[in-house]
């Protein structure tokens, strides 16, 4: 199993990486150069790739090595992949040799089936690889590999300039410290695009798809710290998996990336006393939330809120709002390509993977993080319950800000229940989540109206038709929100009676 982090390097900065003093400091054996020719094989229909496998034959120094890997997850950050390899007498692939080594029946059978069909070369990589074996006094070891070259696929070429950091021994602490130190000097970008993925994408680029939150699988005997880390990485994966779609300016990908970030911030808030987030990471997440939120607000206005306005044809208004949203989508690309975005992702990944909330690598005595999660999660969920009840009790039915605070509290209570779903009575938690989701939907629509009231004045300037439509829409949405107060009161009353099962 390989555990690695991939980083894209600006091609002009490759020599600066090779000469970086931090690599020399931790590599007692120095750097080693290799010339690699990797040929990827598959059936003509790409059967292995479709089943999440890659088959590669590498030639280096007159020897051939055959390697099979499982596909990487759909997000950047630290990830694990299955990897098996064996020597070959020549460049002809023999997947059956590895099929016998792999215990997973489905993977073994996929390779055996591939050998029974005609394998063809799909593409190849020509790479100059520079490697360092980095060691630290505590015994941690990280392999650093800098690749420069090209991928040749279907008559097309694409440049390779990437850094791979792989844990050989120990924890991930030094791996992320190294990545952040290099990034401080040389602008890097996190990536999950393996060379195989890039090669297949050159043949047929699939459309990016939004990635929704996946259920968190928790063991009943896991500690609260284990579950905190697992949930945090689950939220981070949702965020990162949607980055390609946001870069393609996919509206739903932006929404799902923002959901992943909201889930992560809700989790951090829930655990603020047990695992306080460093201020610089919190500031980075706030910065990212603001960048995503501003764009999403105009998306919602253009594609959803204005559909609630009746009595006029808001086509011109919708078109103007969509133009503002599209402009912000383009500006958001600059944020995602920025050095700060890479720093935020590296910092959060490092904090979660290395459990950096620990003091000197240990938990405080009697910390509830060391307790079984099935018991220790109860006070956290009860706290979220009480906060929601207090905010509902303080609501006077008038201030939009109060509604928004209730919505946030309901969202955090719901996320908490979803996070720990595996440790709670299934039927009761399903009802609890459903009730809170209904309240969220109602409050979310009212919040969209309130946001529209702030955005529409930007389109209301002047005395033309657009200004008149904007003024009408503001009045219509304000009246609709006012008329909803009775139904909202009934929903709030029902939620106050809810109690998450213990």
UniProtKB/TrEMBL annotation:
Domain CYTH span(s) in chain numbering: 1-206
SUPFAM superfamilies per the UniProt record, alphabetical: CYTH-like phosphatases
Ranges of residues in domain CHAD: 221-497
Pfam short name (any one): CYTH
Protein name: CHAD domain-containing protein
Species in which this protein is naturally found: Massilia jejuensis
Organism lineage string: Bacteria, Pseudomonadati, Pseudomonadota, Betaproteobacteria, Burkholderiales
């Amino acid at each position: 199993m390989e555990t690695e982090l991939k980083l894209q390097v600006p091609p002009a900065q490759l020599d600066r990486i090779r000469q970086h003093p931090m690599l020399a400091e931790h590599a007692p054996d120095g750097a080693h150069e290799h010339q690699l020719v990797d040929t990827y094989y598959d059936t003509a229909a790409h059967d292995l790739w479709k089943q999440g496998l890659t088959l590669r034959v590498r030639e280096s120094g007159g020897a051939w090595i055959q390697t099979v890997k499982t596909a990487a997850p759909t997000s950047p950050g630290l990830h694990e992949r299955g990897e098996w390899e064996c020597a070959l007498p020549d460049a002809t692939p023999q997947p059956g040799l590895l099929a016998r080594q792999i215990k997973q029946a489905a993977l073994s059978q996929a390779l055996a089936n591939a050998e029974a069909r005609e394998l063809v070369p799909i593409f190849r990589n020509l790479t100059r690889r520079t490697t360092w074996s980095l060691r630290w006094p505590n015994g941690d070891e990280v392999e650093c590999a800098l690749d420069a070259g090209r991928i040749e696929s279907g008559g097309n070429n694409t440049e390779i300039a990437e850094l791979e950091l792989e844990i050989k021994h120990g924890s991930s602490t030094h791996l992320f410290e190294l990545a952040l130190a290099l990034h401080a000097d040389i602008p890097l970008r996190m990536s999950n695009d393996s060379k195989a993925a890039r090669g297949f994408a050159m043949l047929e680029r699939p459309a990016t798809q939004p990635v929704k939150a996946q259920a968190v699988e928790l063991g009943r005997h896991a500690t609260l710290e284990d579950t905190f880390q697992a949930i945090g990485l689950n939220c981070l994966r949702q965020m990162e998996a949607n980055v390609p779609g946001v870069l393609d300016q996919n509206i739903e990908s932006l929404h799902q990336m923002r959901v992943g970030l909201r889930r992560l911030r809700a989790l951090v808030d829930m655990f603020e006393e047990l695992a306080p987030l460093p201020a610089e990471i919190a500031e980075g997440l706030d910065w990212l939330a603001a960048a995503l939120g501003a764009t999403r607000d105009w998306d919602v206005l253009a594609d959803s809120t204005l559909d609630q306005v009746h009595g006029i044809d808001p086509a011109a208004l919708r078109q103007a709002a969509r133009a503002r949203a599209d402009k912000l989508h383009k500006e958001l690309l600059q944020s995602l390509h920025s050095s700060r975005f890479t720093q935020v992702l590296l910092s959060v990944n490092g904090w979660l993977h290395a459990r950096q909330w620990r003091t000197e690598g240990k938990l405080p005595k009697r910390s509830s993080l060391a307790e079984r999660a099935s018991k220790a999660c109860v006070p956290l969920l009860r706290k979220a319950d009480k906060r929601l009840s207090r905010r509902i009790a303080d609501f006077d039915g008038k201030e939009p800000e109060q509604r928004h605070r209730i919505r946030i509290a309901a969202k955090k209570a719901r996320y908490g229940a979803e996070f720990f779903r595996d440790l709670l009575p299934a039927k009761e938690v399903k009802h609890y989540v459903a009730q809170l989701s209904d309240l969220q939907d109602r409050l979310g629509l009212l919040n969209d109206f309130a946001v529209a009231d702030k955005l529409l004045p930007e389109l209301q300037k002047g005395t033309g038709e657009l200004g008149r439509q904007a003024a009408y829409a503001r009045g219509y949405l304000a009246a609709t929100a006012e008329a909803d107060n009775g139904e909202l009161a009934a929903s709030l009353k029902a939620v106050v009676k809810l109690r998450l099962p213990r």
